[in-house]
């Protein structure tokens, strides 16, 4: 009896130790994930982030790299959302505009913005004047769109100029997630070939995920040799390159206001219902 009693006592100790170890493990994982997912943004107050690198990509486009508080910090921006950036225009007046980082929370320690600077643009002026060491005031997350894996079967995307950045963020998140099989069909419109933003990155995604991600470029002024679309994005281009209206399909659009308006009319005429459409 004694022997059996000792064995049962030992089993209880082993069981107790195992439960304690499991609880400690779970607590460590919980603390790590909650710390990681907390992020550096405040939806109510602007926070300052230091510009640590500025890379000119073309005559009017630059990539701005901002430092987060520590080398393991994440920005904490949900997929499909953007940030508000505050600056001063040429007259010294305050200006606030939305921007979507091209980095995800898998990129730790920094976040990056690819900015197209327009000659007369108010916030463009602020970014043009920014030098390494300067701070940018940022508030967020912002936006009505929030991506959940499996929310649709296929996204159609209509982007114009710098309107590519929200699409790029959603596309990267989906394609880099091995379990997310959502299909992506992007039509990307620009004036000239040189205006195409994130071209290498988009080509990289299209090459790596040929069955999941398709891009069709449209240019107003194409080069001599060009196999993409020419002119403005037409109804026919949408019919040929985006998923047809139906269950599990959503069309996202982001571009200059005249393009957004023209695309809304094309999509309605093609039979997409309002619940299938989203404008960033
Ligand atoms: C969700 C969202 C995310 C965005 N993300 C980015 C981003 O990552 N990078 C980025 O560069 N921009 C992005 N934008 C656009 C950005 O918010 C500003 O609209 C843009 O930087 C111009 O602001 P501005 O104050 O310099 O120009 P404004 O003072 O508003 O405009 C002045 C003039 O600039 C020209 N202009 C302005 N916008 C456009 C345009 N879209 N197309 C053609 N001409 C234009 C026009 O001539 C206009 O009259 C995003 C917009 C949205 C809605």
TrEMBL record:
Cellular component terms (Gene Ontology): mitochondrial outer membrane
Positions bound to FAD: 98-99, 114, 116, 123-124, 165
Alphabetical keyword list: FAD, Flavoprotein, Membrane, Mitochondrion, Mitochondrion outer membrane, NAD, Oxidoreductase, Transmembrane, Transmembrane helix
Catalytic activity: 2 Fe(III)-[cytochrome b5] + NADH = 2 Fe(II)-[cytochrome b5] + NAD(+) + H(+)
GO molecular function: cytochrome-b5 reductase activity, acting on NADH
Segments passing through the bilayer: 12-31
Cofactor: FAD
Keyword Oxidoreductase attributed: yes
Subcellular location per the Swiss-Prot or TrEMBL entry: Mitochondrion outer membrane
GO biological process: electron transport chain
Protein name, entry field: NADH-cytochrome b5 reductase
């Amino acid at each position: 009896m004694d022997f059996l009693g000792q064995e049962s006592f030992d089993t209880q100790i082993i069981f107790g130790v195992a439960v304690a170890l499991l609880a400690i493990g779970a607590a460590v994982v919980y603390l790590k994930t909650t710390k990681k997912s907390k992020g550096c943004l405040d939806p109510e107050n602007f926070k300052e982030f230091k510009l640590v690198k500025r890379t000119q990509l073309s005559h009017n486009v630059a990539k701005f790299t901002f430092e987060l508080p520590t080398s393991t910090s994440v920005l904490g921006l949900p997929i499909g959302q953007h940030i508000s950036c505050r600056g001063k225009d040429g007259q010294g007046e305050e200006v606030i505009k939305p921007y979507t980082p091209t980095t995800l929370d898998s990129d730790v320690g920094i976040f990056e913005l690819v900015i197209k600077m327009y000659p007369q643009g108010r916030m463009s002026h602020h970014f043009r004047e920014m030098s390494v060491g300067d701070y940018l005031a940022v508030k967020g997350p912002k936006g009505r769109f929030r991506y959940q894996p499996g929310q649709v079967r296929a996204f159609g995307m209509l982007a114009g100029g710098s309107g590519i950045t929200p699409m790029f963020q959603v596309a990267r998140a989906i394609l880099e997630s091995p379990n997310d099989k959502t299909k992506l069909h992007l039509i990307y419109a620009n004036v000239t070939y040189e205006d195409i933003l994130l071209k290498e990155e988009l080509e990289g995604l299209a090459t790596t995920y040929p069955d999941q991600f398709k891009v069709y470029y449209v240019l107003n002024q194409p080069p001599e040799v060009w196999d993409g679309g020419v002119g403005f994005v037409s109804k026919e281009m949408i019919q040929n390159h985006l998923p047809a209206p139906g269950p599990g399909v959503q069309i996202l659009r982001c571009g200059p206001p005249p393009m957004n308006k023209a695309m809304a009319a094309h999509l309605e005429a093609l039979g997409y219902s309002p619940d299938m459409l989203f404008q960033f």
